[in-house]
Structure formats: structure tokens, C-alpha cells
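Retro notes
What went well: the complex prediction finally ran end to end.
Inputs used:
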Amino acid sequence: MGTALAHEILQNSPGLTACLLGNLAIVRGALEAGVQLCTCYPGTPASEVGDTLGRIAADADIHFEYSINEKVAVEVAFGACLAGARTLSSMKHLGVNYAGDPLSTMPYVGVEGGMVIVSAGDPSAITSPNEQDQRHLSPSLFYPILDPATPQDALDMTRFGFELSEQTRLPVILRPTTRVCHTGGMVEFGSLPEKKREIAFEKDPSRYVPIPINARRMRQELIERYARAAELLSRSGFFPRTGEGKHGIVASGVGYAYASQAIHDLGIADRVSLLQIGGYPIPGRILDDFVRSVESILVVEELTPFVEERVTLAAFHADRRIPIYGKRSRHFPLAGEYDPDLVEDALRTYLGLAKRERPAVPVPDLPPRPPVLCPGCPHRTSFYYVRKIFGKQTVYCNDIGCYTLGYGEPLHSCDLLLCMGASISQATAIARVTGERTVAYLGDSTFFHSGLTPLANAVTNGDKVTVIVLNNYVTAMTGFQPSIAAQADAPSPPVGEGRRSAGLSIEQAARGLGVQEVFSVDQFDEESTVAALRQVKTGDGVNVVIFNSACVVHEKQLGVYRKRRQFAIDQEACTQCSLCIRMLGCPAIHVHEERFYIDENLCEGCGLCVRVCKQHAILR
Amino acid sequence: MPVTSVLIAGVGGQGVVLVSELLALAAMAAGEDVKQGEFHGVAPRGGAVFSHVRFGDQVHSPMAPLATVDYLLALEKLEALRYAHYLKPGGSVIINEHTVEPVRIADQRPYPDDAVDFLSGKGFDVVAVAATELAIELGNHRAANVVLLGALAEKLEIPSEIWEQTIDQRIPERFLSLNQAAFVAGREALRSPAGTA
């Protein structure tokens, strides 16, 4: 089900039943469709889609790349589909925003080979700064969107997505959410294709160049093509209806799985009619038939009341004045992900059943386990020295990656955060209006993803910004995907074809953009680190410090890690001042009966605590 | 067979996901429908991880409702308490006698040291297994997760051959003998009263 079984999804064994995570089922669906080129930018909860494709790319004869960002990922996949290839591009929900520019015109131009964009949603913003509902892209940009409820749906819908794309010439979005991506379930395999599509780019500028005169024609054609998508969806089998009861339930995504479970557990199958919404645009006839056949409707969908509004419209057009419940009626919350209890409770309310009595097991007041930087993480050392030199008052603009964990206690290294690459723009803005030098933090992958343009912008404007690039040679937060900044002598993971043999130099990129003052140092070397930071603090305009140290966890995975040293706390010398804990938040330092200890299994010997301890109580 | 729900809880890095996969694969091999939901967020950075594995004739939801879980497998003591409200009345808990201190960044609530007593007092059937110690004896503390899976297997009706095949197929060659031994040690710990609390 996990990565070790990745080879299993390459088997040409139609009818085989396997237990796959939703993300792996998506990969299988793409293989069954004969996908030829895949691009991705890693992002939870979609990361395993790209990682798995990367791992099997050579065996499956697929062109694969970890793209520099989602915009490029989508453009590369779209370009290849114009040459006839079936292509897939994978990212998290926010990736479609970064790719918004090409995405908004691609349906106008239209595809040749089928194109599926996987954009995984994150209700409750579990690993994201927001829980955006991508389904609104369907009516606004004319995308057919498929909305799986289970791993089997994920497989079937991905495969179908390529057909739908070719028949409408529209790129198609597959929108699984976290609870589909990270759910393991039984899936039945179809067959792998004997041969893939012919590749040939045939010139036809009037068709591929959306200058206004062509764009206006394309817009007219879109009306018909989008309507055709609804027609094909109506025959897709992704809108199953079960039951003949008068209580209608319309459900999408994992809400459909929860509703199915609650209907079974409550024994109400004979009282309800359940309709799954497997995609958008929702075929008008399906909703029309449904609103005419029931006396009321409860809509079960996460995020915004997208289906609910369409059901309401369908009832209006069918002249059916039936009660429609959902978010508007507060049967469901307007924000956050659903769970089986929430859905069962809503169904009980809807059907007038007694509330469920839950035996109360009071959860004791437990210490939380907030995510923290790992022991030995080079980011902790970077934050420590930067704060030591720049002080408390400096505004620290942070970015998307492990280093976001600089937020709050005890590192205080994240005063602002917005989206990929915004650290530099925000630092620019604060510096310009306050007149004070600001600090921007971002990692190597984020630097190339979207840090170059704001850096050029800051240089052009001469803003007093110090950009700190935390280069650990890998995209660590999302699962150690190769970074474009990886250096020839840096640890290199054996992940797919997307690996570049010699990475790009952050230092050369910064200098190329006109930054005069650039330092590239190892942050564990105190002398050069402090010297560089002192200099940039008093420098003019934009300057850059690149801290280069490999991610400890990644080095361990690669088997190249060597623990530097082992530290322990001298109990005689320790005064229990707790400064080490209050300054560093290192998981290797713990307290037992008011005494401080270093866990020898966790300590990686970075030595930062030695520098912090005023009693000199931490010894090798 | 009606749906059996197992909740597996632990801390990032303890192998919650691997145990969930092994259980899901074994249940599938035993002919059951299976759904498994992983809940890890940013857990690799020291957070709590949990997973639901549900199997039976037909399973729709990857997640069990509150107060319906049959078995809670806790790879860490504190994490057993965090998810106890998912257990059905009288449900079973298999708990690793092992503490992973939460990271201290400031003053915070103390680590509760009475997890087993607390859960027994609520009427749950609690078994404590020194899984981490057993795993260390076998040569690697990381095999504690499979020790606990062995203990759970003792309570489930999945045949031994299926467990053996599943472990053979899923565990990489170089860790296979370790994990086979860990699984057996877990089974034995549950059979012998010395290993229970």
C-alpha cells in the first residue's frame, strides 16, 4: 500500500484486487490510461502521487520531472499534450493558484492528448495555510472536475479523466482530499494499454495561439465543450443512486463514504435515496431527476456549499419547493473537514432520530505534541545565530517549508507568512515602509520555486532586505523530494528521472540577479556565520546569506549520515536554569523530576546547546 | 463478518503507518473488505500520528465513529490516553510500556504516568506490553511496532499463515528476520501472564 509496494501497481493483471492508498490508486489509473509524461511539484496531501510516478517512471516508460514550480509543471504537461501525449500534473490545492495563469487559458486552447491535473484538497487546512475549495474552478475556468470518495474512485476517475479530456479537448482536474489521498482501500485493477498514443506536433497557429481574435472564437467553442463534459459525466457511472426513500441525500467526496457508512449503521437504507456527486459540472438531468423523486434533500459536502447551491437551483428549475438542508441550515459546519460522527449526527437530525448517547471517556488534560524541528536540524542553528545578530526587534518574514516551524516559542523566527516565495516580497514591503532592515527566510526549493522574482524586484528597488536561504539540498517537509538546488557533491536520493545530476547554484542565481553581497557558509561554523551576519546587518540594499547544511533525516535515509558527537549534561554543573529548553526547543533535551537530560538516542551532536548553556554544563 | 475497527496511535517515527499497512494487508488476505485512514499531518516532525484500520464484509468509512473502536494499539503510553474516547465501552487496549517525552518548549502540562490505571478504571480491557524493551532485546528498538502487532494478532481471528505471508511480502529482506522475531515476541508476551498488567 505504501511506497515499498510501488512495483505492484505496474503489474498488468486486470481483475487483481490490491489494497492501495488513494494517491497510489491515482498513479495506477494514470498507468491504465497510458500516461506518457508526468510533472509534479510536491505538496501534502498529493506528494505520494509524484513520488511514486518518479520511482516507476523508467519502468513504465514515462517522462517524469519534479518541476521547479506548479506553473511550470502545468505548462510542461500541457505543451506535451499538444504534441499528442497523455499527460498528468500533480500538486496540492494551492498549486493551482500558482499555476493560475496558464490554467485559465488552457481550456480555451484545448488539449490533443488527454491531460489530468491532480490537485489535492486539504479541508481543515491540516498541512496548508488555507482550505480553498478548488471545485469553483469548474464553472469559472471551464474545467471538468472529478471528485473521488474512495481509492477505487480515484483509480477509475483518473483513467476516465483522460478519455473525458480528449473527448471535450478540456484539461481535467482530479480533486481528491486528504481523506481520499491518505485512505487505503481495496481497488480492482483494469488492464494496462498495449500501446500508447502517437506523438506528433502538427502546426496550427489558429488553434494553438490564443491571440484575441482566436480567443473570442475559442470562448464560444468552450460553451459547447463544457456542456459536452456534463453529457459525458452523466454516462460516467460516477453519480450512482441507491435507495428509493423520500429522504434525499446528495453527497460528494469522502462525505459520500461517511454518509454510506451512517446509512448502513443506522439501518435507514429503506428511508433514504443516496446520490453521489462524482464530478462537475453536475449533469443537469441527474439533479433534475433526483429533486423530482424525493421530498427533501440533505447535502453532504466539505468546504463551501457548492453542490448545495446547484441542488437548490435544480429544485428551483424543476419547480420543486422541497426543503434543502446542508450548510445553510447548519446541519453541517461552514468550515473544516467532516468526520463520521458529524455526518451521522446530521443524518439523525435530518431523519428525526434520537441523538446518539456517547459513553463519556473524559480525555485527561494531556501535553500536546506540536511539530518541532528535529534534533540536529540545521535550521535551528541558523535561526539561533540570525536572532543573536539581528535581535528581537527585526521583522522575520518566513516561508513555506520545515523552517515555518521557526514560528512561536522558542525560536521566534516567523513574524509573517503567506505563501510560497512571499517571504522576500513581504520583507521588501516592511523594510520599505518602516525604513528598517528586515529578514526573509526561505529554503532552497522555495527559492527556485518563487523566490527569484521577488528577489529581482527587491534588488531593483534597493530595499534593505537580508534574504537567508536555508539550503538543505532537499524538499524536506513534503518527503525529501530532490531540490533543484542540489549540488553535485550533495547527497542525492535515488528518486526517479527528475533528479538533476548537477543542481543550480543559489549563489550564482543571486549574483546574476544583481545582489552584490552574497555569503555562502556552513552555519555550524560559528566564526564565518557570525562574520557574514554582522556584515549583512549593516550592508546596503539587498544582501543574501546562504546556509548550506544537509537535512539530518534525509542523510539518515540515504545511509550517509554520521553523528558528529554525543553530548550529555553534567548534573553537578547544571543549575536547571532551563535556558537550553527555552532557547532551542530541541527534542533531545528532556526534563525528568526537575533534572535536565540529553537523550543519547535523539541527540545528533549539533552542539548548539553547548553554545547556549551559560553554566558550561553540557559536555561531550 | 461485522466491521472490526482498530485504532493505532503513536509518535512520528514509531511506525504507526507500517503496522496499519500490515494489518490492512492481512485482513484483505483473510478475505475482508478493508479501509485504512492515516492521520499524520506534519507528524514526521515529532507530532502525534494515528491510523484507523477497519475490516469486515463491507467498509465504507476509513474512519471509525467515536466510542466504536474495538482495539486501540498504542505505541506510546500518552497516545493511548489521547484516543481513548474512540474506544467502545469495554474495548481492548494494547499499550506499549514506553514513554516518548513531548518536546518541552515552555512550561506545560506534566506527562501523565498512570495511563494503564486510568484506562483500566474506565472499564477497558488493558494489556501492557514492554514492546520497546522486547524490541531492544531483539536488536532494534524500532521493531516495537511489530511486537505490538503480534500482541494484537493474538486477539484477532486472522490465521497465522496469513500474518507470516504478509510480513514476508511487506518487510524488506534486511529487516525481515528482526520483524518476524518481533511479531512472535508480541504474540508470546500476550500469552504469558508475565508480560501483562
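What we learned: The CA atoms of residues 410 and 582 of chain A lie 6 Å apart.
What to try next: split runs per interface for comparison.
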